[in-house]
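Revision sheet: C-alpha cells.
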Amino acid sequence: MSLSAAPLTLRGTLVPFTSAPSDPQCRVALEQSGSSLLFAILPRGAGIDLDDMVGSSLELVCTVQRPAPDDEGAAFVHVRSYRDLDADI
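Predicted:
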C-alpha cells in the first residue's frame, strides 16, 4: 500500500461501508461526488467522529492510502479534518 504524502481534499457523501477483509474496522466511506469512487474511512483521528453522519455531504482533508497495483481493494483514507457541507447551507 502507498500513502499520499500531501493532504488531499475530497468531497462527497458519507455512506455505509461493508467491512473489507483488509480492514474490518471501517464502517463508513466517502462516495465521491460525480463518480462511484469509494474511500473507506479508517476509524482513527478525525475519522472516529463520522460513524453517526451517514448521508451527510462532507469535505475531508485526508491522506489516501491506496492498495498495491495488483490488489483490487478499496482506497482507505486517514481523515485529518472534515467540514459538514450540509451545515453551511
